[in-house]
Write a structure and sequence with these properties.
The structure holds two protein chains of two kinds. By secondary structure, chain A is mainly α. Helices cover 67% and strands 0% of the residues of chain A. Classes of the chains: A mainly alpha, B alpha/beta.
Chain lengths: 64, 475
C-alpha cells in the first residue's frame, strides 16, 4: 500500500463519526480514491520544487 | 412606448442619462415585472422594493443636479444572495445563514453602488453555491423562464432566471465549477467567468477559495463588459486579486464595436469531444462556428486534452476546501444541509492533505501545458457549455438518491465548465440557438489568462450577427 492510500485509510477512519451512514461513507471513500487516481496520473509532471503559489505566476506569464 | 424592461443594460443606462426615462420609472417597471414573474420562476430570495425606489429617486435627483455616478447610474440590478451588504441578511442559499446579518459590505457591491446601480434585492441560488442545477430545498428551485418545468442551471440560478426573464438588466453570480456559465446557457443570457484573481471575492460567501470566481450575467456581451469594467481590478481586501490593469470601459466598448474578427484564431475540439454532444447542441455549435468564420475568424482543430481529468483534479480542491469551511456546521447542524449538498461537502473529509496539496501543485503545471499545447496557435477555444438539452427539474432532483447518483449528475452537467475553473482562464457563455423544445443552447469561448476583452469582443461580434439573445421568454 503506498503512502497516499495509507493516508486515505487513516482519513476514512477519522471521519467515520462525521458520516455515520455506512453506505454514504463507502461511496465517499470510493469517490476520494477515484480523485486520488486522477492526481496520481498527473503527478509525474510535477517537479520537486513546484509550489501551489506558482499558479499565480503561470497566470501572469500566460497572458499575451 | 416599448416596455423598458426589454431594453439592454447599456440601452437603459443611455436612456436614463439622456432623460428619456427616469431611474424611478425603470425601477417601477422592473418591480412590476418581478411581481408578475416571481410566482412562476422563483428568482428572488428577497425583494427590497422600498430601498430600490429610494436609491432610484436619489439617482434621478443627482442626475438632475448634473451628477452621474458612473456607467450604471440608475440601472436596476440584483445579485446572487452571497454578496454581503452590511446590516442585511445574506443567506448563501442556506438555512444555516438565513438569520445572519452581514457585518461588512462586499467590495463588488461597493463598486456597483459607486457606479450608480440600483440594488433590487437578492437572488436565489443553490445552497452554499453547491449544485449545478439550481435545486434548493430551503427556498425552492428557481425555474427556467423558457419552460418552468426545466432547471435554470446553477448555482447562480436566480441570476440566470432574473436576467433571462428581463426582471433585471444584469446580475453578479459566482462560478466555482460553472455556476455563472451554466445558468447563463440555460436561460439564454451571456455569462462571464473572468480570470482567477481578476474580480475580488471580498465579502462573498466562499465555496472553494482557490476556484471561486465572481462575475456578471447579462443579456449581451456588451452589458457584461460594462459590469465587468466596474467590478474588476485589484482589491487590497482580497490578496488573490491581480494588480494587472483592467481595460478602461470606453476602450473595452470601442473594441466591442469592431464586429470584424479578421486575424482572430479560434480553436475547436476534434471528433472525440463532438461525439459526446446531443445532436441539436452539436448542430447549434457548428452553426455558431460558421457565423464566427463569416466574420473573419480562422478556425482550426486543436488538441483538447482530457477535460474530465482536469475536472477531477479540481474536484479534490473543491471538496477539501468546502469541507474545511463547513466542518463545524457539519458536526453541529448536519440536518440543516440538503442531502445533495452535504454529500458533496463531506467528500472532502475523505481526502488526505497530501492529495489536496498535490492538486494545487498541479495547477500551474497543467495551466502551462494547456497554454503550450491546446492554445499554442489559437487565441480562443470554442466549446460547449452544456452537452445536452436543458433537463427538467424533476429528472435532476437527486435529493433522495444515493451519493453516487448526486456526484454523477454533477460530473455530467459540468464536464465542459469545471476544467476552466481549475485552470483559472477566462470563459464566456454565449446564447446560440434553441432546441426543438424551445430551450436555449450556448457555446463557450475560453481565452488565455486576462483575455476577457477578447472573449467579450468575439461574443459581441457573434451577437451583432445573430438575434437568439433577443428572444424574450413569455409569461
Amino acid at each position: 500500500m503506498d503512502t497516499l492510500s495509507q493516508d486515505l485509510v487513516r482519513a476514512v477512519a477519522a471521519v467515520q463519526q462525521q458520516t455515520p451512514d455506512a453506505q454514504r461513507s463507502a461511496e465517499l471513500a470510493v469517490e476520494a480514491e477515484r480523485l486520488n487516481r486522477a492526481i496520481r496520473r498527473a503527478s509525474c509532471l510535477t517537479r520537486f520544487t513546484d509550489e501551489p503559489a506558482h499558479f499565480f505566476c503561470s497566470l501572469e506569464d500566460g497572458a499575451r | 412606448m416599448i416596455d423598458p424592461t426589454l431594453l439592454d443594460l447599456t440601452e437603459v443606462a443611455d436612456a436614463i442619462v439622456a432623460g428619456h426615462a427616469s431611474s424611478v420609472e425603470i425601477t417601477k417597471s422592473c418591480l412590476a415585472r418581478i411581481k408578475a414573474w416571481q410566482p412562476q420562476i422563483n428568482a428572488f430570495i428577497r425583494l427590497d422594493e422600498e430601498s430600490a425606489l429610494r436609491q432610484a429617486a436619489e439617482c434621478d435627483a443627482e442626475l438632475a443636479a448634473g451628477r452621474r455616478r458612473g456607467p450604471l447610474h440608475g440601472v436596476p440590478l440584483a445579485h446572487k444572495d452571497l454578496l454581503y451588504r452590511k446590516g442585511r441578511i445574506t443567506t448563501g442559499g442556506s438555512r444555516i445563514l438565513r438569520d445572519t446579518f452581514a457585518d461588512t459590505t462586499s467590495t463588488l457591491l461597493e463598486r456597483l453602488d459607486a457606479a450608480g446601480a440600483v440594488d433590487l434585492g437578492t437572488l436565489n441560488m443553490s445552497e452554499f453555491a453547491a449544485g449545478p442545477t439550481g435545486h434548493n430545498v430551503h427556498y425552492g428551485p428557481a425555474r427556467n423562464p423558457y419552460d418552468r418545468s426545466r432547471i435554470t442551471g446553477g448555482s447562480s440560478s436566480g441570476s440566470g432566471a432574473a436576467v433571462g426573464a428581463r426582471l433585471v438588466f444584469g446580475s453578479l453570480g459566482s462560478d466555482t465549477g460553472g455556476s455563472i456559465r451554466l445558468p447563463a446557457a440555460a436561460c439564454n443570457v451571456v455569462g462571464l467567468k473572468a480570470t482567477y484573481g481578476r474580480v475580488s471575492r471580498h465579502g462573498a460567501v466562499a465555496r472553494s477559495w482557490s476556484l471561486d470566481h465572481v462575475g456578471p450575467l447579462a443579456r449581451t456581451a456588451r452589458d457584461c463588459a460594462v459590469i465587468f469594467a466596474v467590478v474588476a481590478g485589484y482589491d487590497p481586501r482580497d490578496p488573490t486579486t491581480s494588480t494587472r490593469k483592467v481595460p478602461d470601459l470606453p476602450v473595452l466598448l470601442s473594441d466591442l464595436d469592431n464586429a470584424s474578427l479578421m486575424g482572430i484564431r479560434i480553436g475547436v475540439p476534434g471528433e472525440p469531444i463532438l461525439g459526446t454532444l446531443d445532436a441539436a447542441v452539436a448542430a447549434a455549435l457548428e452553426r455558431s462556428l460558421r457565423v464566427l468564420e463569416a466574420r473573419g475568424a480562422t478556425l482550426r482543430e486543436v488538441p483538447f486534452g482530457d477535460l474530465a481529468h482536469l475536472a477531477d483534479i479540481g474536484e479534490t480542491i473543491i471538496k477539501s476546501e468546502a469541507a474545511t469551511m463547513h466542518r463545524e456546521w457539519l458536526q453541529t447542524r448536519p440536518g440543516d444541509y440538503a442531502h445533495q449538498v452535504r454529500v458533496r461537502i463531506e467528500g472532502g473529509f475523505y481526502i488526505p492533505a497530501t492529495q489536496y496539496l498535490e492538486a494545487l501543485r498541479l495547477r500551474a503545471v497543467l495551466l502551462d501545458r494547456f497554454l503550450e499545447e491546446t492554445m499554442a496557435e489559437v487565441d480562443l477555444i470554442h466549446c460547449p457549455v452544456i452537452a445536452f438539452p436543458v433537463p427538467t427539474i424533476a429528472e435532476t432532483d437527486v435529493e433522495a438518491e444515493a451519493g453516487s447518483v448526486v456526484l454523477d449528475l454533477v460530473r455530467r452537467i459540468t464536464t465542459y465548465t469545471r476544467p476552466f475553473n481549475f485552470l483559472g482562464v477566462p470563459a464566456v457563455s454565449v446564447p446560440c440557438g434553441f432546441d426543438l423544445a424551445g430551450l436555449p443552447i450556448a457555446f463557450q469561448l475560453v481565452g488565455r489568462p486576462f483575455a476577457e476583452a477578447l472573449c467579450l469582443r468575439v461574443a459581441a461580434a457573434y451577437q451583432t450577427a445573430t438575434d437568439f439573445h433577443r428572444k424574450a421568454p413569455q409569461l
